[in-house]
Design a protein that fits this description.
Layout: H1 2-37, H2 41-54, H3 58-74, H4 84-98, H5 103-122, H6 129-139, H7 144-156, H8 165-174, H9 179-192, H10 198-211, H11 217-231, E1 240-241, E2 244-245, H12 246-259, H13 269-280
């Protein structure tokens, strides 16, 4: 009887401890998501480590992949720090998840592992992210991440700007709430190509205006400068620029001027406006 009572007490204690650990682990997972939402990814990862020590399992693993994706997509290790701060932390978790992943989920993981390879290349570590992107697309040809990241890589690695247009088009069509991330990749890739990408950047800005997407002041400044180069003194605009009807260019120009801090200090605003209107008449 004494042994039975002691056994029941031990079982009760074990169950109580297990429930306590589960609750504590869930708290750390929730905290990790909260930290990640404000960009404190290293803190979020530490919270997940604490959760894993208390109660390893699917909830922690799922949160790791979710936060790993966001950390890689943000890709800001901090001033003077290498990208390996991020990639070395998250890659093992993505590799583990890849073992049992299938279909679109596997494609998402492959795309982010490819992105990790690209980020490591920024630190001087050789690698080919495109092979991961294409493997992802073989599983899910309309995968948002793989298409956007492949489009970015094509422009980064020196391919024709037009070659990246289709992957970005597919990614944007499927993006949903990930649309800002896809645009950020597209604009970063175009900015990296300098003046050679000016026409494409005008086309992208016009598309963003028509779709009602937000316009950051940094992009507005860049597009405004393109307008002043193409429609400033001495320029000769054609009836169609970058495949955009001039009437659309006029609307996009007014949209950009409202958001650009450079435009507010420029003496060329009205002269550019007049030249675009003359081209439309």
């Amino acid at each position: 009887m004494i042994s039975l009572i002691l056994g029941v007490q031990q079982l009760t204690t074990w169950i109580g401890d297990s429930l306590h650990h589960r609750r504590e682990a869930a708290t750390h997972v929730a905290l990790a998501r909260q930290q990640a939402s404000r960009g404190a990814f290293a803190d979020a990862w530490a919270s997940l480590d604490r959760a894993d020590a208390l109660q390893p399992g699917e909830p922690v693993d799922s949160a790791r992949v979710e936060i790993a994706f966001s950390w890689l997509e943000e890709a800001r290790p901090g001033p003077g720090r290498p990208f390996s701060v991020i990639t070395d932390a998250v890659t093992p978790a993505l590799d583990r998840s890849l073992l049992n992943a299938r279909g679109a989920r596997r494609a998402d993981l492959l795309a982010h592992l490819g992105w990790a390879t690209f980020l490591r290349s920024r630190d001087g570590v050789p690698g080919d992210p495109a092979s991961r992107y294409r493997e992802a697309l073989s599983l899910d040809r309309r995968n948002v991440y793989a298409n956007a990241m492949l489009g970015h890589w094509l422009m980064w690695s020196g391919s024709d700007i037009e070659s990246a247009r289709e992957p970005f088009k597919v990614a944007l069509a499927e993006a949903g709430e990930k649309r800002p991330f896809v645009r950020r990749l597209q604009i970063a890739a175009l900015a990296n190509r300098g003046s050679a990408a000016d026409a494409e950047l005008l086309r992208v800005a016009d598309e963003m205006r028509q779709e009602g997407e937000p316009l950051e002041s940094s992009l507005a400044d860049r597009v405004f400068r393109i307008f002043t180069i193409r429609y400033g003194a001495g320029a000769a605009p054609a009836d169609v620029d970058a495949g955009i009807p001039v009437a659309n260019l006029e609307a996009t120009y007014e949209w950009v001027v409202k958001k650009s801090s450079v435009a507010g200090r420029s003496a060329d605003v009205d002269s550019v406006r007049k030249r675009i209107r003359r081209a439309a008449s």
